[in-house]
Design goal:
alpha/beta; about 40% helix; globular; Alpha-D-Glucose-1,6-Bisphosphate, Chain A, domain 3; about 450 residues
């Protein structure tokens, strides 16, 4: 096909509409390029429940095998299950998913052995260049001896490994509503939760890549309405929503109220530091709540602030030897999980914390949720640089304010902060603000939005 790879090769993965932007013939070339760039003798490949995923995944496997690489197909899996396989087997891996995107999309998340990320600066650019070369000229030369393609089941081992990291055997019985959004949580949750003191209420566990009930993106408030209602109806202790490839989890309390991912980051950080004798580094991106570094310090740890994006988090995890990392987007990273993100392990930590004491979740997380946040507010702008410069000009030189440009512009005062970042893919500026009370947050939020929107 006449593909425009600039449209589908993103900063961290491959993603586009099937078959308009890419198809199985292109997936085969990506498999061959992945084999060459990693130099691996063997790889592992998995896929989600989208209608196009099995065919794309198998084509990728064929492309790699033609280059002499032995391929282990683990079939239907969550993204963190693929990371588990990459870490446990010591093999590079490829996961076919478009996460929370609509059904017509698909993509590839790639990693090196031990779940180390493959992004623009760590191999993805070279993979793209090879595929472009082969599209323009001839196909890659096959190896003299092609590799094998075999199948292996990993779900039970993945579940057992996660349960070995968090002890839930002695918690009180919890009533837990899980909304899988017709995504891969419907595949992994029954096995991970099997035998635990959990009264599971499943929602939308049927694997269906057309997402008939709602988008599998729990960060959009519209997509957790069903979960909130069911938690209240059931009198449940907690509700958990997973995104399409089940690498992110979002939590609601017993009243159905959303729990901030920053509060979850702080809670899990406290548990990981406790397990590590009150020592260790915890990574957080610059738009997580002030609560996160405060809680980390209170529990003896060292907080390290990074740019937004999993490649930055994972790089800092590796550089600092961090024990845990969290993002506002409900991605949670664990040293014990090869520095990779796993929503399921974060969910198990929350369940262990909740079930290990008698308070409701709303009371438990209150100590980790100390400020009022705006959430992420997107504004379409004609000129990102000009609008960002206007915001900077408004606050630069003002007494009592600190400005930094680690990622976009962050302005901090004694009782509030905000960050404005440009989108890499759309003409948007993203605003996040936080303050010690609702009035202060609303004031700074509206002030900055007025500048952004001119």
């Amino acid at each position: 096909m006449a593909a425009d790879l600039s449209q589908i090769v993103k900063a961290y993965d491959v993603r586009g509409v099937v078959p308009d932007q890419w198809d199985e013939s292109l997936a085969e070339l990506f498999g061959a390029a992945f084999a060459q760039v990693t130099g691996a003798g063997a790889i592992v490949v998995g896929h989600d429940m989208r209608p196009s995923s099995p065919g794309l995944s198998r084509a990728f496997a064929r492309g790699a095998a033609a280059r002499g690489v032995d391929v282990t197909e683990i079939g239907l899996c969550s993204t963190d299950q693929l990371y588990y396989a990459s870490g446990a087997f010591g093999l590079p891996g490829a996961m076919f998913t478009a996460s929370h995107n609509p059904a017509k999309y698909n993509g590839i998340k790639m990693c090196r052995a031990g779940a180390a990320p493959v992004g623009q600066d760590t191999g993805l650019t070279e993979i793209r260049e090879l595929v472009e070369k082969w599209l323009d000229s001839s196909a890659p030369e096959p190896a003299q001896t092609p590799g094998t393609i075999t199948q292996r089941e990993t779900l039970d081992d993945y579940a057992a490994y996660l349960r070995s990291l968090v002890d839930l055997t002695s918690i009180r019985t919890l009533k837990v509503v899980v909304d899988a959004g017709n995504g891969m949580g419907g595949h992994t949750v029954p096995t991970v939760f099997d035998g635990l003191p959990i009264d599971l209420v499943p929602m939308y566990f049927e694997l269906d890549g057309t997402f008939p009930n709602h988008e599998a993106n729990p960060l959009d408030a519209a997509n957790i309405v069903d979960l909130q209602k069911r938690v209240r109806e059931e009198g449940a202790d907690i509700g958990i929503a997973f995104d399409g490839d089940a690498d992110r989890c979002f939590v609601v309390d017993g009243q159905g109220d959303p729990v901030s991912p920053s509060a979850i980051t702080a809670l899990v950080a406290a548990r990981e530091l406790g397990k590590n004798g009150g020592r260790g580094t915890v990574i957080h991106n610059l738009i997580t709540s002030w609560s996160v570094p405060e809680v980390v310090r209170e529990h003896g740890g060292t907080p390290v602030r990074t740019r937004v994006g999993h490649s930055f988090i994972k790089a800092e995890m590796a550089r600092t030897g961090a024990i845990f990392g969290g993002e506002h987007s409900a991605h949670y990273y664990f040293k014990e999980f090869w520095n990779a993100d796993t929503g399921m392990l974060a969910a198990l930590h929350v369940l262990a914390a909740l079930g290990g004491q008698d308070q409701p979740l709303s009371r438990l997380v209150a100590e980790y949720d100390r400020y009022v946040g705006s959430g992420e507010i997107n504004s379409t702008v004609d000129d990102q640089k000009a609008r960002l410069a206007a915001v900077k000009a408004a606050y630069q030189g003002v007494e009592g304010l600190e400005l930094d440009e680690l990622d976009g512009l962050t302005v901090s005062a004694a009782d509030w902060w905000f960050n404005v970042r440009p989108s890499n893919t759309e003409p948007l500026l993203r605003l996040n603000a936080e303050a010690k009370d609702e009035a202060a947050m609303a004031k700074i939020r509206d002030e900055v939005l007025a500048i952004i929107r001119g």
